[in-house]
Automatic annotation (TrEMBL):
The keyword Signal applies. Gene3D superfamilies: Periplasmic binding protein-like II (3.40.190.10). The keyword Signal applies. It holds the Pfam family SBP_bac_1. It comes from Streptomyces sulfonofaciens. Keywords: Signal. Residues 1-33 form the signal peptide. This is ABC transporter substrate-binding protein.
Length: 429
């Protein structure tokens, strides 16, 4: 696969990338001024710091780090979903931040390959941090050549949240565990004016749920092949698409779901307008206490003949990691202090207690203030785990898959058209 992180590739990736003047102002400095030549200034580029879950804890952690390390100044640059784009442009000018806190997905999959970030495997061992990381997280962050792309940090459980109170109001006595039961529940909910399953059919949340439903008839190895190659023609994949289409056309998903986003989904569930949502940890943590009291977490209902014997969930260990840039290598002593501080058990525990974050690191702390997050952590033999496709989808196919997702969630779209839309997303790669 050709890497997207070349000057030609970046400038073709989207309007505004050709000139630094098109970049947003970030925390009082432009992106191309991000790298500070002062050897005593550590520059951290992160998605935390505004409204992202865990931001207050992160800002408090920065304050503690500064107090404990008075000789190190820390400049924090904050971006949202455009972080990868902004970082890549800064890297082309050799003015990137020293440490980057972002997830392993889409463009970032190629960063180590093209030298935008460095392999940190030696640092993990030299700094004595290997035992702090969950083995599954190390596996996820290690590429096919054995390079550790970043220090794993945030993880997530991704179950399905069911509002029992709304189900009971509609006369549904139990959380559905089969497709037939889900369809029957959806009909009852609609009769009471309640949306059944809400999801962002026009963004990444819908993409993930679609992938989850498609995997109903796939083993993990088969799913890995599908999402690596874009081959949606196998029998199990076609059965999964058929199952998705049957659920969709039976009215299981909220009205106009193809236009909804993750924010729409969260609002509908949290305001009791919808009874069910596919919710990762950060969404579970945001559920108001009054709704959480009546919510049960479980898996996605199965169809007859499924490859799984229990309803399915997803788990991931790639939500946010600490990446080291080439500029960061020049300040490795400061970077080491920062990474060690972020890996400290007390820092990790605060993210769990205060923000309800799942971590890719070992900890005995429980999200007691976030009961649904804690409940998802306890899901064991009651559910089966399917593959989160992020590590296997080619970066250039990620955004086209969002478009294909919206098409797929549009009622009346045939299974053949869904399959064609998914395969077309890969042809652009």
């Amino acid at each position: 696969m050709r890497s997207p992180l070349t000057r030609r590739g970046l400038l073709a990736a989207g309007s505004g990338l050709a000139a630094a003047t098109a970049l947003p102002a970030l925390s009082g400095c432009s992106a191309l001024a991000a790298a500070d030549s002062d050897p005593d200034t550590l520059v951290v580029h992160t998605q935390l710091g505004t409204t992202a879950p865990g931001s207050p804890t992160y800002l408090a952690a920065l304050d503690r780090f500064r107090k404990e390390n008075p000789g190190i100044r820390v400049r924090s640059i904050v971006n949202g979903d455009d972080l990868a784009q902004v970082y890549e442009t800064a890297r082309l000018a050799r003015k990137e931040a020293d440490v980057v806190m972002v997830n392993l997905y889409d463009k970032t999959l190629a960063w180590t390959d093209v030298g935008a970030t460095v392999d940190v495997k030696d640092q993990l061992d030299a700094w004595g941090l290997r035992e702090r990381v969950l083995p599954a997280a190390l596996d996820a962050w290690t590429d096919a050549r054995g390079r550790l792309r970043g220090f794993p940090y945030f993880a997530t459980n991704w179950p399905v949240a069911y509002n029992r109170s709304l189900l009971e109001r509609a006369g549904v006595d139990a959380v559905p565990t089969t497709g037939d039961a889900l369809i029957a529940a959806a009909r009852r909910l609609r009769a009471k004016g309640i949306a059944p399953v809400t999801v962002g059919g026009n963004d990444w949340t819908g993409q993930k749920l679609l992938a989850q439903v498609i995997q109903t008839f796939l083993t993990e190895d088969e799913a890995r092949h599908v999402y690596t190659t874009g081959d949606f023609g196998g029998r199990g994949v076609r059965e999964g698409i058929d199952y998705f289409v049957a659920l969709r056309d039976a009215g299981v998903f909220a009205d106009k779901v193809q236009g909804l986003t993750s924010d729409s989904m969260t609002t509908q569930f949290n305001t009791r307008a919808a009874a069910v949502e596919s919710a990762m940890s950060s969404a579970l943590a945001s559920v108001p206490q009054g709704v959480a009291r009546h919510t049960e977490v479980g898996g996605w209902p199965l169809a007859e003949g499924a490859a799984h014997d229990r309803p399915t969930i997803m788990r991931a260990y790639t939500l946010i990691g600490l990446w080291i840039s080439p500029n960061g290598v020049k300040k490795l002593d400061h970077v080491e202090k920062f990474v060690r501080f972020m890996y400290r058990p007390d820092t990790v525990s605060r993210f769990i207690r205060e923000s309800g974050r799942d971590m890719a690191l070992r900890s005995t702390t429980v999200s007691s203030g976030f009961p649904l997050v804690a409940a998802a952590q306890r899901l064991g033999s009651d559910v089966s785990q399917v593959l989160l496709p992020d590590l296997y989808v080619p970066p250039t196919a990620s955004q086209p898959l969002i478009t294909a997702t919206s098409t797929s969630f549009t009622r009346g779209t045939s299974a053949a058209r869904v399959r064609a839309a998914l395969e077309a997303a890969y042809r652009s790669a």
